[in-house]
Amino acid sequence: MPVPRYKREIPQRYRLEASKCKSCGKVLFPPRLVCPKCGSREFEGVRLSDGGKIVTFTVIRVAPEQFADQTPYVVAVVELGDGVRITAQVVDCRPEEVEIGKPVRLVFRKIQEEGKTGILCYGYKCVLSSLG
Amino acid sequence: MVGIVGYGSYLPRYRIKAEEIAHQWGMDPETIKRGLLLKEKTVPAPDEDTVTIAVEASRNALKRAGIDPGEIGAVYVGSESHPYAVKPSGTIVAEALGITPEVHIADYEFACKAGTEAMWVGYSIVKAGEVKYALSVGADTSQGAPGDALEYSASAGGSAFIFGGEGVVAEVVETYSYTTDTPDFWRREGAFYPRHGGRFTGEPAYFKHILGAGRGIMQKAGLKPADFAYAVFHMPNGKFPLTVGKRLGFLREQLDPGWIVPLMGNTYSGSSPTGLSATFDVSKPGELILLVSFGSGAGSDAFVFRMTERINEVREKAVKVKELLEYSPIYLNYGLYAKFRGKIIMNS
Fold first, then answer.
1. Domain encompassing residue B89
2. B-chain residues near A108 (CB < 8 A)
């Protein structure tokens, strides 16, 4: 991931910062300049909740090169408490433990490394853990 | 009154048992388990490092503190396994928690006592009135060389403490530090694994400094072992903290709540801080707790804490250490452990 893009996306990847339309209340993640629902350009900043449930998921067995050593791994569409849906890896579990509807919690993890000498990219992933 | 206003810990879910490592190197598991008093240790997932552990522990500390992260004026992360050689862990931690940009940040390093160094400075800067709150973290994902005695203990985890002057959970009653130049354990720049002085790591290093700091702080505070409800000492293995506690005059029941090393392993900079966090989890208002860390090289930081009424309000607001230790561990065989820890040479 290029350094400028990584830096630009930190508010979303680290802190789940979204924008809420002041006109219709739709929450947008990542934020947009224009609300796709009502066309308004007025927003307020909100933080998404760190809990949700699995809407659907897939098990990746043939992965892009930088994720090849993690297979098999789970990528899920997760609906957060705010109704916002995100795509995230589900970690710290065996693929057979993952089911549609199971509650998940977002955690801070390393997403990828830019080779042996590049930057480390952090962001959110999910765990099934019911702990705090 | 300045002290800890929020505390929290984090341990990875993966584990490896001592016998799994012993079998790999042709050692007798029972001799290892009896000699080191270790059953298993935590292993970081491939996507976990000091930064991610520090963030998760700090989030738990924030839940208990109940403060606006923006009011934290200092972030100090102590570790001997910072993921970057040049670039601070603290900036990533602070950014993830929403503390930047009006904040003073530094990383600390002093073998296993980097966490209590961060606590020492965090406490002092709040006491000096420079900042309202300071976040101090001890976290590590340490490595022992394959086949070395350290491989049975070197584990991953960490704890975070927020210091402040209002809403204190544990008041800092006294501090003391005892340090000399003692080459008992080291890792040279660029070396992947640390080296140590074998038996030299015991009496001239661990015991000398913990006994020095323990006796020093009790004399300075005018306290004796019987005055304390609990004591926590650095846990490089199961045996050392029990021995040093006994030599200082503490009873086994005073050590038990913080003696979590048989299941956790040695989380280095997160070792005695996580023992402290586990002890806070069971402590009552008014009780005194002694903490003495140890970092090779070598030195010990000591703290005396007095618990306040607020511990009863915050205890259940975040996950407790015992729950982290017991929650559905995933056990690894040695092959997966070697893969997780980057011990396998891959084609690049």
1. 3-169+325-340
2. 51-52, 55-56, 59, 96
